[in-house]
From TrEMBL:
<dbReference type="GO" id="GO:0051536">
    <property type="term" value="F:iron-sulfur cluster binding"/>
</dbReference>
<dbReference type="InterPro" id="IPR023867">
    <property type="entry name" value="Sulphatase_maturase_rSAM"/>
</dbReference>
<protein>
    <submittedName>
        <fullName>4Fe-4S cluster-binding domain-containing protein</fullName>
    </submittedName>
</protein>
<feature type="domain" description="Radical SAM core">
    <location>
        <begin position="18"/>
        <end position="153"/>
    </location>
</feature>
<dbReference type="Pfam" id="PF04055">
    <property type="entry name" value="Radical_SAM"/>
</dbReference>
<keyword id="KW-0949">S-adenosyl-L-methionine</keyword>
<comment type="similarity">
    <text>Belongs to the radical SAM superfamily. Anaerobic sulfatase-maturating enzyme family.</text>
</comment>
<dbReference type="InterPro" id="IPR058240">
    <property type="entry name" value="rSAM_sf"/>
</dbReference>
<dbReference type="GO" id="GO:0046872">
    <property type="term" value="F:metal ion binding"/>
</dbReference>
<keyword id="KW-0411">Iron-sulfur</keyword>
<dbReference type="InterPro" id="IPR007197">
    <property type="entry name" value="rSAM"/>
</dbReference>
<keyword id="KW-0479">Metal-binding</keyword>
<dbReference type="GO" id="GO:0016491">
    <property type="term" value="F:oxidoreductase activity"/>
</dbReference>
<dbReference type="InterPro" id="IPR013785">
    <property type="entry name" value="Aldolase_TIM"/>
</dbReference>
<keyword id="KW-0408">Iron</keyword>
Amino acid sequence: MFYSLFLMAKVSESKIDTFTCNLRCPNCYEGLDIRSSKTAMTKEQIHQMFSSMDQLIQERGATSVHLQYFGGEPFLRSNKAIVEDITLQAVERGWTISGITNGTQIDQYFDLFSRIPGKVDQIQITMDGPEEIHNQLRIRADGGGTYLQICRNVTIRA
């Protein structure tokens, strides 16, 4: 977990809730053993994270806090309960949220995002060029491409 402080009045936390990923991109910096793991944060780890952040915020006198999800793939279907727990606790504290995702399962989170209007600053979806190039670089475990699936998810939300 990384803590970054900006101007001493703002705290920004980058949050890796899992290293697991549903894709097998050939250019990924994470090893396949890490991406294939099923490890995710536990309730105890979530509690510890918030305790640490609450203490840091108090010590620094922070007036705003921003939480960013990345990973692995933070917005996997299998992570939804964890992401929802963290997100709702962050929103209760007045934090804003963002995330970096491959976009293949982000549609599973639209209901959560719609329940917290104005709290999700941005969701960055990684696209690697036109369909032909993207599908060579962003590959599902079964070898299929992801371009059209991501486009559908973006279109659903738009």
